[in-house]
Amino acid sequence: MTNPNQDSKYLLRAAQISQQTQGFSHPWNDKSEIHGTMMGRSLGLQRTGVNFVKVPPGKESFVYHAHYCEEEWIYILSGDGIAEIDGEEFQVGAGDFMAFPTPSVAHHLKNTGKQDLIYLSGGENLAVEIADFPRLGKRMIRRGATVEIFDTADAQPFDVLDKTE
After folding, report:
1. pTM
2. Does a structural domain hold residue 28?
């Protein structure tokens, strides 16, 4: 018989999501401010990230960036914002979905509304990730927990392997 009040290590209740909210700002963007819960990580997901995110009015998510290895997606639940995708700006709101297959184009999200911009985001958690920050001239290479930052002016071109091969 089903017990609607029963808890499970595979279930994260709404109250738990609210209680586990943490704040973060990207160190390279003074307008970056997000609050959220890493829901997937809370329940033990290791290969997939699923996050509940709030960006306050006038604030931004992270910094304009592009991924080489990890795919990423965003689904807007409420609020209004501007998504900058590959150098173009798009008004976004509730029900809009964005996906960034790899290698991805550069992207970024800003809250331009008067309420919190609330969305779900997620993507892959691979052992290696490479990300470019084109406006900052930086490239990040993450291998597990080790992160290295390079100037893209010093970078050599490389081919990204097709993950389907």
Report:
1. 0.87
2. yes
